[in-house]
């Protein structure tokens, strides 16, 4: 109970709220102070037919504009006791006989959602991947191709377009057995098909070494100071003509930063964390070494420390 001012009692009195009628009543004189109030608290009554079903959810999922019926079609549940068993089962059989044009899309969207969840991707990337797959599927030219590779390639392209790129190795790790080569071919096919649809090349977004830095450093358990130095270093490296892939540059910068710290990381660990081969990291390190004094921040390493770096 709570207190409220009663106009009959002319003072603050305890009031009782009648949930069934929505009335607020004075506990001393019985005056209805407020009627038909709206209860804004959560309401979890169950509307299930079976007494054993205590699931309070009575709404469906959100509409999906990529599906023919918006994803709001009715599904006949399997009978679980009661007088309507025969009718329910008959309707269910007829529904199953009918062809659902979106069945393939629904399964594909579920697979993309699972892969996105395993990579920890945000919802906008998942939605973009769904949209890309729907556009490719509408052209009716993907029949016979590796479905897992197509879905993984859609996710790879979506990450690029949303400026949250992932390496092909990362995508491959959740692609249900699809290889890097298959995903690469699927990506080229999708880009080609979308280009034919629009009449122009598909914008994939530019990859920078800094896009991977925070994630790679986190995988290696580097401290905040080392992560900050790595991010500054990789930004300065873009000022030089280093003809290596952004992922290789990121891995080489991490190698340099860790060698200048007390917590040195072996090349093998960096290779595992970044997905870049040890030989590729060494070659990228050779290309970065001549510019090391201009790339590494002065606050992180002094000139004499840089001289102690192993020459390639």
From TrEMBL:
Keyword match Magnesium: no
PROSITE patterns: TFIIB, ZF_TFIIB
Annotated GO MF terms: TBP-class protein binding; zinc ion binding
Classification via SMART domains: CYCLIN
SUPFAM superfamilies: Cyclin-like, Zinc beta-ribbon
TFIIB-type domain boundaries: 2-34
Cellular compartments per GO CC: nucleus; transcription preinitiation complex
Membrane-crossing residue ranges in chain numbering: none
Coiled coil: none
Keywords: Metal-binding, Nucleus, Repeat, Transcription, Transcription regulation, Zinc, Zinc-finger
Pfam families hit by this protein: TFIIB, Zn_Ribbon_TF
Gene3D superfamilies per record: 1.10.472.170, Cyclin-like
GO biological process: transcription preinitiation complex assembly
Location(s), subcellular: Nucleus
Family recorded in the similarity comment: Belongs to the TFIIB family.
Protein's UniProt name: Transcription initiation factor IIB
Protein species of origin: Cicer arietinum
UniProt lineage: Eukaryota, Viridiplantae, Streptophyta, Embryophyta, Tracheophyta
């Amino acid at each position: 109970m709570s207190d409220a001012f009663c106009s009959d009692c002319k003072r603050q009195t305890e009031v009782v709220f009648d949930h069934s009628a929505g009335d607020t009543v004075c506990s001393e004189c019985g005056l209805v102070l407020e009627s038909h109030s709206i209860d804004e608290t959560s309401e979890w009554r169950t509307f299930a037919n079976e007494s054993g079903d205590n699931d309070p959810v009575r709404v469906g999922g959100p509409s999906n504009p990529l599906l023919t019926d918006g994803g709001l079609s009715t599904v006949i549940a399997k009978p679980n006791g009661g007088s309507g068993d025969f009718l329910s089962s008959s309707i269910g059989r007829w529904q199953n006989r009918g062809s659902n044009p979106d069945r393939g899309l629904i399964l594909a969207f579920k697979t993309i959602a699972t892969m996105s969840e395993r990579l920890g991707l945000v919802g906008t990337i998942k939605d973009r991947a769904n949209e890309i797959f729907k556009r490719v599927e509408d052209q009716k030219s993907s029949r016979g191709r590796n479905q897992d590779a197509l879905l993984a390639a859609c996710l790879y392209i979506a990450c690029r377009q949303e400026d949250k790129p992932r390496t092909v190795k990362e995508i491959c790790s959740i692609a249900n057995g699809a290889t890097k080569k298959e995903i690469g071919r699927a990506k080229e096919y999708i880009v080609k098909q979308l280009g034919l649809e629009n009449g122009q090349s598909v914008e994939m977004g530019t990859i920078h070494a800094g896009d991977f830095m925070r994630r790679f450093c986190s995988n290696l358990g580097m401290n905040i100071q080392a992560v900050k130095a790595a991010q500054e270093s990789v930004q300065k490296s873009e000022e030089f003509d280093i003809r290596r892939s952004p992922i290789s540059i990121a891995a080489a910068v991490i190698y340099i930063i860790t060698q200048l710290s007390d917590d040195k990381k072996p090349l093998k660990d960096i290779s595992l964390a970044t997905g870049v081969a040890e030989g590729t990291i060494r070659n990228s390190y050779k290309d970065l070494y001549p510019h090391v004094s201009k790339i590494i921040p002065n606050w992180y390493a002094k000139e004499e420390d840089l001289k102690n770096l192993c020459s390639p």
